[in-house]
Structure formats: C-alpha cells, structure tokens
TrEMBL record:
<feature type="signal peptide">
    <location>
        <begin position="1"/>
        <end position="23"/>
    </location>
</feature>
<dbReference type="InterPro" id="IPR028994">
    <property type="entry name" value="Integrin_alpha_N"/>
</dbReference>
<protein>
    <recommendedName>
        <fullName>FG-GAP repeat protein</fullName>
    </recommendedName>
</protein>
<keyword id="KW-0732">Signal</keyword>
Amino acid sequence: MGVFMQAAAVLMLGGLAAGIAVSQSGRDGASIVEETVPACDQAEYDGAHQDCVLQLANGLLVVRVSEGGTDEWGDPIERADLSFHRADGFTQSFDGTLGSSFMQPTAEDVDGDGDLDLLLPQATGNVNTTSQVWLQGETGFVAAGSINGIGIEPVGGGLMSVAARSSAAEWETTYYIARDNRLIGLFSVSTDFSDGSCAVNDWDGGLAEAGMTLDDATARFCDAD
Ligand SMILES: [Ca+2]
C-alpha cells in the first residue's frame, strides 16, 4: 500500500454503516481501487489488527496496519500508518504501533478539551491494556506517552485518571496532566476493596502541581462515598 496515496476528497464521502469507502489513488492521481474499510469498533482481531477508520467530529483517521516484527518478549508488533484528513483540508501522516491486544484503536477525548484523541493498544494482560496516547491539537496528533490500565478519562481541571487493577480487589489509579502535549503522572491512589484501605501517593510534588494538598486529595479520592 506504500505507493498509494489517500484521496482525501473521496474519504470524506464515506460513512457506510459497516465502514467507510476509501479510494486509493496512484501517484498519477488515477483512482485504482475503492474499498470499504471497517470502522475500528467493527474491525476484527484474530491475532492481528486490520485496517480501520475512526470517524471524528472534524474528519477521518485512517489506520493502515502491517507487520512490524516482534517486541523484546517475542510478541508481534504491528506497524500502524495513520493518516488524518481533517474536514478543513488539513492532513497529517504519522506512524504508530499496535501490539498483541484484542482492543482496537479508539478515539476518545482523554484530556477533556473537546477534541478526540487517539489510543493505540500495545498489549493486553489479564485486565489492563497498555496504550499509546496521541493528543489532538491544532497541528494534528502528537505522541503523548503510554498508559496502562482499563482506560483513561478526564476528571476536570486538566487532570486525567488511569485506573489499573493490580489484583482481584486492589486498584491503582494514576492521575496525569498534559504538559506540552506529554502525559505527566502527578500522583496515584491505591484502593483495596478487601479491607477498605485507600492511600494517596504523591509523586515528586505532583499534588502541589495539581493544586491539592494530601488532605485535599485524600478527601476527594478516598473519603468520597
Ligand atoms: Ca482531547
């Protein structure tokens, strides 16, 4: 697929129920093939991901998947060639990876700024998934780092939470902010439902950066019922 270019004008016409019609054009501009690429939440995983499309409020994000070798544990890595076709004509091409996870690429507003961001799953264990996070800004998507947990969501004030299950009854929720489009972990909250214990763990002054004292955070994240 490397020699083909996406025809953005045609991309914007898609929107079929099961997927989105995508035209591939050769370098001469002639349309060579038209195919229907599934929406990512409809795509299949059989040990490898397939090409898929994310429909955003402001455009389309096309994910092209190819083999990318193996990681240090011998698990397969897939190369993800991404192209963002914004409705205003802005386009961006960038490379990510996908890994051994049945989770699909998703578009979610992880930082709560109103723009959909991108999560690319790298590996899923018993419960938690490691994902690359790409934040969307005016210049498209920027690699912001990786998270491990069951998901990431905005919790107000620019904070994002990533809850990870560490055992049957124990959860570790890490709170991040984005600084220069990089996720920075500020503090975490350890909860054990077997004995009802809960503790806030400050990370190198992160609570102060979030504008909270230990007491504030404990009241907000541990004592709230
Ligand atoms: Ca966002």
